[in-house]
């Protein structure tokens, strides 16, 4: 049973605050639309290879090369009890808490606040031996997609997409390119006593998709070993972080 809730007003992403006159407006809308199109929460086993399963979490990849570089797209689905999709997306987007859950980071710096729902971030990742350290510059956009019926469910999403910025000049790092999306749906089991929902009545369906181009050579075996370990670790650690962070807070629908 899916019950639709109106998202709490005045939270980033509840209504679009990105201005249509901003130079990123078209790009952001196009990337968001592309991710929504492929957010079926189902994975075609004929195309995707499972690399990790743990409880409700399933992580898949497709081996792919571009110009001699490993760019394996990654997809994961997960189901988490006790939190909403809005909460998961809120913490994924909120740069101020990123260092608390993101285990691959050395530093993160917001180079532009574009609007209430969009920021541009420059972040440096931990170096992996024997490769050059990586950094990334990307816009991060949070959005609520209001559902109308069974065919267009209510969703929250965050997209992280590589861009350039004057305040994020090339450094000693190799710059990666990414196209990452987290898309969430919230299921609420109606209470038999008709009382307001509690966290026990919530289940959040998560779909995470990542395309990362390493930007320069890295040993394929090291690269594949790193992402095989890091994506499941991230999904576990991040969802646990949100569960802990929200446990004593009112539900953010
Ligand atoms: O989505 C996630 N986090 C978001 C906020 O940070 C954001 C980040 C995307 C990840 C971009 C990848 C950056 C390269 C990382 C270098 C490796 C660091 C490993 C450090 C280990 C201690 O959207 C959650 C992402 C969590 C998983 C990230 C792992 C990605 C590995 C991809 C491999 C390609 C990079 C090539 C580097 C060479 C390494 C051998």
CATH class: Alpha Beta
Instruction: Provide the β-strand percentage band.
Output: 25-35%
Q: What is the terminal separation in angstroms? A: 16 Å
Give the overall shape: globular
Structural class: alpha+beta
What is the makeup of the main sheet?
10 strands, mixed
Q: CATH homologous superfamily, by name?
A: START domain
The string of secondary-structure elements, in order, is HEEEEEHHEEEEEEEH
Poorly predicted runs: none
Q: Bound small molecules, which ones?
A: N-((E,2S,3R)-1,3-dihydroxyoctadec-4-EN-2-yl)stearamide
| Rg from alpha-carbon coordinates | 18 Å
CATH architecture identity: 2-Layer Sandwich
Q: Tally the helices: what do you get?
A: 4
How many strand units?
12
Describe this structure in words.
The protein is of the alpha+beta class. The protein has one domain: START domain (Alpha-D-Glucose-1,6-Bisphosphate, Chain A, domain 4). 21% of the residues lie in helices and 35% in strands. The chain has helices spanning 25-37, 85-93, 98-101, 220-246, and strands at residues 49-54, 57-61, 65-66, 69-70, 74-81, 105-115, 118-125, 134-145, 155-162, 174-175, 177-188, 202-213. Strands 1, 2, 5, 6, 7, 8, 9, 10, 11 and 12 form a 10-stranded mixed sheet that branches. Strand 6 and strand 7 form a beta hairpin. Helix 2 (85-93) packs across helix 4 (220-246). The relative contact order is 0.22. The structure holds N-((E,2S,3R)-1,3-dihydroxyoctadec-4-EN-2-yl)stearamide. N-((E,2S,3R)-1,3-dihydroxyoctadec-4-EN-2-yl)stearamide binds at residues 98, 102-104, 123, 125-126, 128, 131, 134, 136, 160, 176, 178, 180, 212, 214, 218, 222-223, 226-227, 230-231, 234.
